[in-house]
Amino acid sequence: MSSNAIEVKDLRKEFVAYSSRSGLKGAFRDLFNRNYKVVRAVNDISFTVKQGEMIGYIGENGAGKSTTIKMLTGILTPTSGRITVNGMNPHREREKFVRSIGVVFGQRSQLWWDIAVQESFRLLKKVYGVSDEQYEAHMGHIIETLDISALLDKPVRKLSLGQRMRCELAAALLHNPPLLFLDEPTIGLDVLVKLKIRDFLKEINAKYNTTILLTTHDISDIEALCERVVMLDEGKIIYDGSLEKLRAQWGDEKEIQFQFSSPISYQQLAVLMPDSDVSWTQGNGPNVWVARIPNEEIVLSMLIAKVAQTFRIQDMKVNEVSTEEIIRNIYEEGVVHG
Ligand SMILES: Nc1ncnc2c1ncn2[C@@H]1O[C@H](COP(=O)(O)OP(=O)(O)OP(=O)(O)O)[C@@H](O)[C@H]1O
Question: Which of 11, 14, 15 has most ligand 1 atoms within 8 Å of its beta carbon, as the pocket-test mutant?
Fold first, then answer.
């Protein structure tokens, strides 16, 4: 097997969406020719994922994330393009393929609703052909780390969402797959469970070099886990790189908030650094002004020095532009950056 867990080349998926005409006359005409339009959900994307990488696959609703994952897991066939996952074609070598991946889709369960969790585990163990020795060696640790031993004899329908998600994760890893797909694994979970799941994923990744591809709307999941993000917009990859670079490229501004001891006018502030890219706006509260500046050390120290020389400052705060905000900006601007 090559060292790439996932190889995707010029991958495309189109859906044909029919629209029905209204009324009896419309229905009659629909019999002969229906109105349809082609939706290109995934538009010729290419990327590779190395074994052991943890990748955040992100994008707005409808960007094409689920469609990609469904193709990568062999649920949907591509319209065109090539996919190799764990050295296989996901839908051609179905049976062998599913044994090489683990999948957790936030809203869909692979556990049986009415039977005890451990019965589900036992069934999956059979399906995946996991030996007793393998199971003991591997699952004991997983059950302990996810803290689910007290849940094993409960039917899934009796579990809370957080409890169920932990059991889903254990189920997805039962056969110790080298590749794990997670779709919104922490959605709706409380902070402690989220942290537990993140720690667990980090541990699995470190211990087994498991590749993890994660879709999430929770950027803090990405910050905690992924060095690389692939961002999708309208079926196209608009960013593929490190979270750090994304920040550096886009988080290129800082905000400094000053609270002055007495009222100051905009003109007084505007003349401080007339030749630089500093913009001032009034903040919340009395005598509060916010300067937005380019994220450069020298501009920051000059500004602070000038302001401190000229006015009496009661309080000062520097805000980094958050990743959340950076990503929102990208969506709004829709700019393509490599
Ligand atoms: N079975 C289908 N038939 C027709 N159109 C579809 C089908 N599945 C997805 N689409 C369309 O393809 C586009 C991409 O959808 P997809 O579900 O992949 O987005 P997503 O990024 O996963 O969004 P979300 O975050 O909401 O899950 C959307 O415009 C969607 O309406």
Answer: 15
Ligand 1: which atom is nearest the Cα of residue 68?
18
135: Cβ below 6 Å to ligand 1? no
The three-class DSSP label of residue 60 is coil
Which residues have C-beta within 8 Å of that of residue 122, sequence separation ≥ 6?
A: none
Residue 179 structural domain:
4-248
Beta bridge partners, 104, equal 182
Q: Report pLDDT for 336.
A: 42
In a domain, 338, yes or no: no
Statement: residue 1 has pLDDT above 50: no
Q: Are residues 175 and 298 in the same domain?
A: no
- The sheet with strand 35-50 has its strands ordered as 35-50, 4-19, 80-85
pTM for the structure as a whole: 0.77
**Which CATH number belongs to the domain containing residue 287 in this structure?**
3.30.70.1150
CB of 72 closer than 6 A to ligand 1?
no
Give the ipTM of the model, two decimals please: 0.95
The verdict on the CB of residue 216 being under 6 Å from ligand 1 is no
Residues 78 and 187 in one domain: yes
Phi, psi of 115 (to 5 degrees): -110, 160
Alpha carbon 166 to chain centroid distance? 18
Quote the CA–CA distance of 153 and 121 in Å, as a whole number.
11
Kindly state the tokens that stand for 76: 């949907």
Residues 55, 229 contacting (CB under 8 angstroms): yes
Residue 101 burial class via C-beta count within 10 angstroms: exposed 0-12, middle 13-18, buried 19 and up: buried
Helix (H) or strand (E) holding 25: helix 23-32
- Say if residue 177 is in the same domain as residue 212: yes
